[in-house]
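To: structure subgroup
Subject: Chain for Friday's discussion

All,

I'm putting the inputs and outputs inline so they're searchable in the archive.
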Amino acid sequence: MKQLGYDVPAPAVRERLQRLGERRDVFVATDGDGERVVGWAGLLIDEPFVEGFGAFLEGLIVDEAARSRGIGAVLLEAVEARARERGCAGIRVQSNVLRERAHSFYERNGYVKVKAQYQLRKPLSR
C-alpha cells in the first residue's frame, strides 16, 4: 500500500484482517512459491442509503515489480466473481484522478467512468 502513498503499518493491517466480517473479503496474490505477497484486492458488500445494495472494490494494489503480468486482472476477476456470488448486479471503484494507468486498466476490464468528484474529510475529535 505504501507504493500508492498509503502508509498503513503492518499491525493495523493485521487488525483489520481479523475484523473482516461477512461483508468484506480480501483476495491476495503471492509470488510463485507463495512466500511474498505481490498484490491484494478488497471487496465490500454494502447497502449505501443512496446507491442501494452492491459491491465496492475498496482497493486493488499490485507490487510495482509484479505489474503488467496479469495479476491485477486475476484479482479483479476473483473480486467480481465473489460479488456475483453475493448477489450483486454491479461493482463500483474509486480511483484517484492522478492514476491514469489504473483508469486504463479498469476501462480495459469493462469499467466505465461515471463521474468525477472531490473527496472531503474532517477529523473528528473524541
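Points worth raising on Friday:
The chain has one domain: 2-108.
Strands lie at 24-30, 37-46, 54-62, 91-93.

D.
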